[in-house]
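A further point concerns the way the authors explain their paired sequence and structure data. Showing the layout once, in full, would remove most of the difficulty. For illustration, here is how one protein appears when written out as sequence plus structure tokens:
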Amino acid sequence: MDWQGQKLSEQLMQIMLVAVAVAAYVTGFMIESFRIMMLIYAGGVVLIALITVQNWPLFNRHPLKWLEPSVADEYSKEPPQQQAAAASSGKKKSTKK
């Protein structure tokens, strides 16, 4: 799922949760049953999770273009040998007063 797909999924989830909550409340109020209201809301939450959590093609319309490893190495700040040496010598030098 790309970044725009995540944003779309989040917006759909919020809109559908509000719609299900309103529908569950109205139904529960008309039937005068708190249990039915909670069951409708819980079913809606499960349905919304199945719709928005999956990586549907709808949410992957703008795939990211990754750099090739050789191109990415050219843009690093230090050569790989210096990075490895800096990582292995992670000891801090003590200063004397």
